[in-house]
Amino acid sequence: MLLPVNSKRKAMILISASIWIGLVLGVSFFAAPIKFSAEGVSRDDLLRVGQVTFQAFTWIEWFAWLGLVAAIGRHYTRALLAVAITMTLWLVIQKFWLLPILDDLLVQRLAGEHHWHTLYITSDIIKLILLGGLLMILHKSG
Questions:
Q1: What whole-number distance in Å separates Cα of residue 46 and Cα of residue 54?
Q2: What is the CA angle 60-131-21, rounded to 5?
Q3: Which end is more exposed in the chain, N or C (fewer Cβ atoms within 10 Å of the end residue's Cβ)?
């Protein structure tokens, strides 16, 4: 049964989604590119650091997802439910399909760019769009 989202629950959802947006922006769009400007560190070493970073970050995102789902609880609209389900599927795809591909590519060839890294960046952009959509849904709901 769909229950209305009260203001306290709405605030919890807004905070959870906003923190998650900040995490994705901070790790994927600031820290990751900035590390490649480090002098005296080989590209191979930076790629290995990136691998460890994103493996750990995946787990942080699952905790962010748990926080968001807990904040939503039983108080959701169909739109909130659709975004939550889509986000769940996206995290599963990223964790169990995309990251293993990137890990295999890193093992095979540590040097050079590959289109799969672009796909990961695109995946994070889609997460930001989904989380932003969630914020817009909450804003429109009252």
A1: 12
A2: 50
A3: N
